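Re: beginner question about structure tokens

> Can someone show what the tokenized structure looks like for a real chain? I only ever see the sequence side.

Sure, here's an example I had lying around. Input first:
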Amino acid sequence: MCGIFFSLSSSGGASPTQETCELLQKRGPDSHTTHTVQKDIKAQDGASSAYHLTFMSTVLSLRGDHVYKQPLVDSETQSVLCWNGEAWKIQGERVQGNDTERVFNLFLHAVKHDAVEGIAEAISCISGPFAFVFYDAVNARLYYSRDCLGRRSLLQGVDHNGNLKICSICDSASADCFQEVGTDGIYTIDLDHTLTSRPCQSKTIPWGSGRLKQPIPPMNKSVPDDPPALTTDSAFVLELQSRLRQSLELRIQNIPEPPNYTPGQSAKTAVLFSGGLDCTLLARLSHEILPPNEPIDLLNVAFENPRVAAAAKLNQKTPSTLSIYENCPDRITGRSAHAELQKTCPGRTWRFVAIDIPYSECLSHRDHVKRLMRPHNTEMDMSIACALYFASRAHGSATTDPLIHSGSPYTSSSRVLLSGLGADELFAGYGRHGVAFTRGGFDALIAEIELDVSRLGSRNLGRDDRVLSHWGRETRFPFLDEEFVAWVVSAPVWEKCGFGLPGEDTLGIDSEKLALRLVALRLGMESVAREKKRAIQFGARTAKMETGRSKGTDALT
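And the corresponding structure tokens:
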């Protein structure tokens, strides 16, 4: 994980503010470096001018055997790369060690001949999440982009002085001018020809055009005549388990030891853990990949919600013996899933980290969370962002025994967080998917899933990245691996969920995400396989903390 700042100015360098530097260094605490470029140009009328480029990168080192400082600068051409990503594969081959230099060399080779199409082809070779800014000094071109699923944050805007700025986060001074960089392709600026007019004007190379291949194929829209029942031994379920494990292996094998690491005690991997199906499945499969003596941290967040507490006190005839935190839905399912993991994988140290957030603490961090999630600015954004912010801080009380709820103060050493995001969109996990099927059968269900998948890149992953990365940790999404997503969307809908299938109720399992539920059953996770879907803001109780009639879509003041 890295932090990126870039500016393009025709009136002197535009350096990042102190606030921007501090926020970027929280994302990348291992290194921060600034590089500047000045290039003189001549307009058609013979007048001389210059453009100034400022690059700053911070680095969270998670690949290779040492810290690879950025920005990378080519000594021969003076081209520059700021890279915030994980190239898991290049040209279909797994990248061993550090990926940043591999990507830089790929780009440098690409621009030697057909620069624009060469970059497009180079990016098509990369599998993994990314956001980058690349300056091709030979051809005086700037390129910047996010991957098509939008898994890394990148914002752009023109400040009040007319300078183009591109950054991983939004500081207070830029709140009004920044917007998310789109996930529709690669953006490029011909510096020599556009600087004299508007340096922020860019050309977009869309995914699927020229040599820029679209990683995600069209949705399989076939409708079954007589679909067979899914079972734990169905071919699709078996391959699903194998492919999800392969995606997970890329993301948790060979993670470097974090600072102050103690073998057998410190964790390299943690799971954003509600106890639901998706995150518990990732934890269970991680057990089969990681060394048996390596602990896995399960980060479970619960909030004091005054509105819920007041309602419970009013309606409760007998006082509950559980605390307001232990009464949270995600805490209850988290404890249950922890016990099931311990039962099915008894040799592993499963460290349950109970992260309890008082209402007063939530209020004290509210403005900071609001700043991190910009330009998103609704009540729902805040309720989700708060849960992610405190979960990724990873500070709470830890226990390894599911029967003991009172733990010792603990902060996870892990710099890698696993998230189950993407499973609901791919496998029809939302309640509205069932509504769509009831309304219009398989055609309506397919259309709803297709809509979800098509807008993954344009929704909330950038917001989540800005919030989750604030504590110097990187979140990885096994369900959003390009190859995995491509395989799932190519499969017929009746293999992914149980709507309209014969015998769908025989095992007492919901139709939503049926294939994933069957994988959980195969792995011995019977209770988890039957767990209901619940949104994080309701499970952790960050939604509607105050009384009133505010809606999730209301803008924050």
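Each token stands for a local structural state, so reading them left to right follows the chain. The first strand starts at residue 2 and ends at 9.
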